[in-house]
Design brief:
It comes from Hypericibacter terrae. Strands 1-3-2 form a three-stranded antiparallel β-sheet, with helices on one face. By secondary structure, the chain is mainly alpha-helical. The chain has a domain of 97 residues: Cell wall hydrolase SleB, domain 1 (Arc Repressor Mutant, subunit A, Orthogonal Bundle). The chain is 41% helix and 8% strand.
């Protein structure tokens, strides 16, 4: 279980770590790992099994940067300038979580989740009527595909 599951450049890893930082910086390790697994789950899925690009992006970097998928990358989000300016020291824990997930060193605690939202907010429209497959830290995780 110690392999990189899909092509991942240093740039992809940096984007993934910044996404985990922006979405789960205050979380326990399990929360950071869960967000990283959600990213990996999306990157590994081929919606429709057609080999065509999926609506939520392709690959680690594409999944993270796809508009409106991870709020920390929206220019008006308060975390956007912080993730852009974050230095290696700030990203260290998030990088560790990303390495562990991409290397298959930790099992997926989300049950294959492809979506999540903070438990502190009302369920967004896409989660209406859906049951989370996991609640980890401050997030509710859903497998919608």
């Amino acid at each position: 279980m110690s392999r990189i599951a899909l092509p991942c450049s240093f740039g992809d890893l940096d984007i993934m770590a910044r996404t985990v930082y922006g979405e789960a910086r205050g979380e326990i390790d399990a929360g950071k790992i869960a967000v990283a697994w959600c990213i990996r789950n999306r990157a590994e899925l081929d919606l429709g099994n057609d080999g065509k690009p999926d609506w939520w992006g392709e690959g680690i970097g594409g999944v993270c940067l796809k508009p409106y998928q991870f709020s920390c990358w929206l220019p008006n989000d308060p975390m956007f300038p912080k993730i852009k300016a974050a230095k290696a020291r700030q990203l260290a824990e998030c990088l560790e979580s990303c390495f562990a997930v991409l290397g298959g060193e930790v099992p997926d605690p989300t049950g294959g989740a492809t979506h999540y939202h903070a438990s502190s907010i009302a369920a967004p429209p896409w989660a209406a009527g859906k049951t989370p497959v996991a609640i980890i830290g401050a997030h509710r995780f859903f497998r919608l595909i």
